[in-house]
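Ticket #4471: structure export looks truncated?
Reporter: QA, pipeline team
Priority: medium

Steps to reproduce: submit the single chain below to the structure queue and open the exported record.
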Amino acid sequence: MLRRVSHTALALVGLLLAAQAHAQEDPASPEKSTITRVGTTAAQFLKLGVGARAVALGGAYVADAGDLSAVYWNPAGLASVRGSALQLGKTTYLADVNFNSAAFATEVRRLGTLAFSLLLLDSGNMTVRTEQEPEGTGERFKVQSFALQASYARSLTERFSIGGSFKFIQERIWHSTASSVAFDIGTLFTTPFERLRLGASMSNLGPKMRMDGRDILFSEDPNPNTDGSVEIVNAQYRMDAHALPLLFRVGLAWTAVRSGDHTIVVTTDAAHPNDNSEYINAGTEYDFRQLLSFRAGWRNLFEPDGEQGLTAGGGLNVRIDRRLRARFDYAYADFGRLTQTHWFTVNLDF
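Actual output as written to the record:
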């Protein structure tokens, strides 16, 4: 049975890698050296990350997603949830943009784990400026993006789990919106080496998004120098459709030390996005008595012209009573010339 599941896990990972290879650009293309796809996808908030523990580990979380952050990194990790769990996350991202997350999961006996989550990005109010009025028109606008997600995961054996998510995505800029749906899928496999785990996931597979709304409408005189029966024609700008930020991840998590009160975990991910070059994330965590944790990592290694880098953080586990446990996590993420961000997450298991 174990051999059959091992073959299944490797086959699923192979399918993800094959899809990744198919999504890559032709290396022989003459445009490859001068044209990149950076900034060509919509819904960029889907790339920010969720959960202070995962961020502190440098985003190397696809093989170690054992809490509700798994809804973002690898839905197969939800299979480890026992009972019910709640996670709330908050960060003030770059340029004072608010990015919040919430997730709830519950274990359904003999069926697996169900989870529901929300990602919300809010720019806050900004001044409307035009070419004629660069100091502002007196109007205010904001950018808001959100994703509602339903996830399901199940352990097929003690070593192998699989999970998937369906999400509704919407972006709003002033009075215009763009919407889409997307799917995620992931697998987790504990290898025969016990302390070594393998994970793979594919995120944000779905149709393109196109902005629409009254902000793109305008009225124009098609021929202002000629008198005629038609003086004003109502029209709208033609908006391009943009792909979602499709992302493939493959990663390893290794419990390097498990001795008495001390545990050390080392994680690494290789990622292939459809709008940038490949990169690697790496992180490590030291845990003392499942009470205090200290973490460090590095994001987006080998990404050309990247500003992301060092991450660090920690966590505190508190048992409130026999059934209720709380974990408080913090993460710091350096963005080079763009300064840094601070992430806060509260986890409740009950």
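Status: closed, not a bug. The export was complete when the record was re-opened. Leaving a note from the reviewer for reference: The radius of gyration is 23 Å.
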